[in-house]
Amino acid sequence: MNEKLDQQYFDVKFDFHESKYEPIKNIGNGAYGVVCLAHHRKIGTSVAIKKIADVFDHFIIGMRTYREIKILRHLVNHENIITIRDVFLDSNNQKHVYIVFDYMDTDLKRVLESNQTLTNDHIKYFSYQILNGLAFIHQSGIIHRDLKPSNILLNQSCNLKIADFGMARQYRDHDQTQYVVTRWYRAPEVILGYTEYSQAIDLWSMGCILAEMFGRKPIFSGTNTIAQIQLIFIILGTPSKAYLTSLRSDCFRRLILSVGNRQPANFKALYPSATDDGIDLLRQLLVIDPEQRIRATAALKHNFVNEFLIKLDDNDDCMIDNDVEKFDFGFESEKWTLNQLQNAIREEIDHFSFRPIKQNYDETSTADHDQFFPHNQPMENHHRVVIVDSKSPSPTTSSSSSSTAVVTTATSKLEIDTTRPLEKKRRKNGHHHHHHHHHHHHNHHHSKRSCAMIYNDEQDDSGDTNDEEAVQLS
């Protein structure tokens, strides 16, 4: 990581003063905040604390913070979604918001860039957990909109949690803003400027992530939006006449036709280590037409990952909970002033500050731990993963009232090494098929004029500013 970047975030001060947390060290730089590792002074639990500076001075940062806190409070108690444990204001100036999360050892981006071996079992288990989290998010009426490896947190035991809901939006929200998802993970319907899109965009991102787990490099790493569209069609092949006709703009039709008449790439040849089931799921995720793309609940039943679900009965209905309360996005349409937004954020913070925590802690008592982490308590509707003991047979039936997903024993032994710093793999510019796109430069100027809108990416490039690829390709 470059040193200037390091300095920027290691210099950020975490002033909790009399708070219950003791900052240990700064560990990362999120999209809109710096994260530090801290310990709960009384319980000793490790937590990650994100500092969002000057929240009350900037409407966009304030709104993003409010949205993330509110959504994560709604999605609490799912084991594949990061949990907010606490939120508080800087005791000095009351302008910085601190959000306390479960501490996770690493993220998928770091793992993919390291020389950590990922077996097929790792990839299956990670895929299952991402899909399990997405199914719950989508059933709550939410689209994540920014799913990428750096937002997928992992610990050493391979437990996975989806994080960073600051970009999330309502399903079928008509005013869908232009910047969605770091470009490499962005669905074609988003790049092509469809104003209405669905939860299917998260499944496209999932497909890109699955391909990256198989190949250890991004499948579509376009250096700009036009290169991105071309790469997608170079790899997935020329779309049907019907699809081309359905496009809203001549410009996009020409752009897609500019890659010539292509057969879909052979995924088995691109990813020789992937199993047939893995390749099949990848094909169903990376479908150009969002209507035809597999949904999260259907993907959970796919052979590649369904060993992690209990079958309930003969009609093969896996335990997927459809009775999920929808998240209320009403606040998005309020025309709030900055002042009203500040009050709304303070109200969210109050939900946390009034949680009673006993003053006299006993290090050994789990009761205290559970009071600090009330969300760990079993709930009627929980989605807890149970590791089955290797000697007991895997249960194949379960009463429909329980919604416990059971992980088979193969996975209970899975680990990733997070003890040593994950070394970046040195790699040359290994883009398996990216040499194609420079044949098309002559199209770019023409497209720039007629497709001005696709340059409205609020933050272009892959979005991860310290990304090696972005540097190599520019």
Please describe the topology of this protein.
Blueprint: H1 3-10, E1 21-30, E2 33-40, E3 46-52, H2 59-74, E4 84-89, E5 97-102, E6 106-107, H3 108-113, H4 120-139, E7 142-143, E8 152-154, E9 160-162, E10 169-170, H5 188-191, H6 200-215, H7 225-236, H8 241-246, H9 250-257, H10 267-270, H11 276-285, H12 296-300, H13 338-353, H14 366-372, E11 385-387, E12 405-407, H15 409-412, H16 441-450, H17 468-473
Helix pairs in contact: 2-13, 4-6, 6-11
Report a brief summary of the structure.
The chain is of the alpha+beta class and 474 residues long.
- How much of the sequence lies in strands comes to 5-15%
CATH class of the largest domain, named Mainly Alpha
Report the CATH topology name of the largest domain.
Transferase(Phosphotransferase), domain 1
Helix share, percent = 25-40%
The CATH superfamily of the largest domain is identified as Transferase(Phosphotransferase) domain 1
Largest sheet entry: 5 strands, antiparallel
CATH architecture of the largest domain: Orthogonal Bundle
Task: List descriptors.
474 residues; alpha+beta; Phosphorylase Kinase, domain 1; Transferase(Phosphotransferase), domain 1; 2 domains; five-stranded antiparallel sheet; three-stranded antiparallel sheet; 12 strands; 12% strand; disordered C terminus; nucleotide-binding; EC 2.7.11.24; ATP-binding; magnesium
Description of the molecule:
The longest helix has 20 residues, at 120-139. The two termini are 18 Å apart. The protein folds into 2 domains: 3-103 and 328-379, Phosphorylase Kinase, domain 1 (2-Layer Sandwich), CATH 3.30.200; 106-321 and 418-473, Orthogonal Bundle (Transferase(Phosphotransferase), domain 1). The protein is globular. By secondary structure, it is of the alpha+beta class. The chain has 17 helices and 12 strands. Residues 1-10, 172-180, 356-411 and 420-474 have low confidence and may be disordered. Helix 6 (200-215) runs antiparallel to helix 11. The protein has helices at residues 3-10, 59-74, 108-113, 120-139, 188-191, 200-215, 225-236, 241-246, 250-257, 267-270, 276-285, 296-300, 338-353, 366-372, 409-412, 441-450, 468-473, and strands at residues 21-30, 33-40, 46-52, 84-89, 97-102, 106-107, 142-143, 152-154, 160-162, 169-170, 385-387, 405-407. It has a 5-stranded antiparallel sheet with strand order 1-2-3-5-4. It has a 3-stranded antiparallel sheet with strand order 6-8-9. Strands 7-10 form a two-stranded antiparallel ribbon. A hairpin with a 7-residue loop joins strand 4 (84-89) and strand 5 (97-102). Residues 390-449 are annotated as: Disordered. One of its GO terms (molecular function) is ATP binding. This is Mitogen-activated protein kinase. Residues 423-449 have a biased composition (Basic residues). Pfam families: Pkinase.
